[in-house]
User: Fold these one by one.
Assistant:
Number 1:
Amino acid sequence: MASLVAEPTTTARQHRLHVLAAFFAIYIVWGSTYLAIRVVVHELPPLFAAGSRFLIAGAILYVFMRASGAVRPSRAEWRGLVLLGALMFLAPYSALFWAERSLPSGIAAVLVATVPVWTALLQMFVFRREPVSGSLLAMIAIGLAGVSILTFDATRGQPNVLACLVVLASEISWALGTILTTQLTLPKSKSLSAGAQMLIGGVMLLLGAVAIGEVPPWPHVSTTALAALAYLIVAGSLIAFTAYEWLLTQLPTTTVTSYAYVNPVVAMAIGFSIGGETVTGRSLIGSAIVIASTMLLLLRTPSRPKA
């Protein structure tokens, strides 16, 4: 007797496998990049390492998209790309790479996950795109409470307050760039735009490295550090980002952005099991609070009118 439930077609199964592979990339691969960053900055200067990552990844993606037929950005589009390169790559990644010299990768990932908190605050009080509501402020307060616990958590007996604050401040820049993305004149091709932003951000980071006198000790760089840098370029910046862009065309944004509260869990697990990082009870509590706040902020239904 024929089955009452139709078997999925080969195309449907392949699409499902592609979706699962893409989520693996943005959940696991992106979550693992935090430990890779810590491995790299253990030997390479932070701004030089970050600049090398995004210059190479951005150049590869930009050249590939141009060769695929994407239109070259106009002068107005380049202005927007330069601004986003500064806001979303120069500030956030110089801070993250520097902070991970002393901060466990898992805690760094949790602090990066506070982007929705800063985005919501900017939307309410700076851009006036979202009405101030008690429930939204409560979600933000929950997230900041978790951040406070993490910030003052003693890692190996010494609190890394400065490193935490630097990462938090840099994520405000990322949140601002995220909001301005909807207002700036940018190329129609998202992948071309992302490649250009990474390329510009990489150049800015390398110029910053030169300005502060960071000289890469190439003769003393281990194969482990070079492998970690290659992993950041290929897996973190090319594969995972491409998967993220593709998922945004296939599924609701709230489903895709769930990586924001999955990455910290993955980063802490990998940092503890592979990187030998210490995970205290207080850091687990603070992380859980921050992730819960992030989840609530991402899954909420904004009550602002359509533009």
Number 2:
Amino acid sequence: MKINPSRFVISVLILLVVMVYLFVTAPTPLVEASHQDRLLSVKTIMEIANQENSAVRALYTTEIVAAGKKAGIKFDEHWKDEDVEAGPLPAQFLRETARYLERTPVRLGLYLGSDYPINNANHFEGMQLEMFLAMRRDRQPRFFRVADSGSYAYLFADIAIAKPCVECHNAHQQSPKTNWRLDDVMGATTWTYPTDTLSLVEAIQILDALRQGFRAAYSAYLKKMATLDNPPRIGTQWPREGYYLPSVEVFMAEIEQRVAVNTLNRLMTVNTESITTAPVTIHNESL
């Protein structure tokens, strides 16, 4: 799939020009340091990607799903079925983003799993389950290498941040756990990549593909909403204001506002961050 340049790519390219200028005109020690750190740690890029994904999930969960339900907008895990007049739940929104990534040249994998998943295909097993259970206790991410595949993985806690998350899982007929509460660690977002380092250009391509994945997932949602007998009005207003949904551009602009500063700041300093990482190695083919 060909990825069209986004505003994010243009912004980062401008940033790169500034960085190159600084490195070219800087004193010799700074130039030498930049050459030593030309490769970036995939752990750092996964952290940036996860920060953006977490911000988008929080936005979609609270401002679209939670507020949308109050406004009369419906959401369902089977939202793609023709006879279901509803939009995707947060888990399905993430899955749409992940599917977009799978169709691009970037090699970043995105998965959502748990020890109590509604869908058994998302059940953690073996050492991956042990990693997750340890993470549930301290809520700290886990970075590790999967020996069987040679890929690198990063687990981040998926926390119940809104009532719809808890209510949906507790009421679902196939849910193996029905006493979830707000702020519980319900699962984990897992990122995978085949190497432990990558170039700055590759990092930018990954983050741009992720942004385009958010856009594709939300666009698919609005496309489904347009088929309803009584579709919400799409424009500049949000569900908290009534039976409305923001347009793709309004939704993406809000994402940009929430993540741009942090991402650009990280990319400005990432070239000086250490790439030495000693991840735990586990033997698990489930990733």
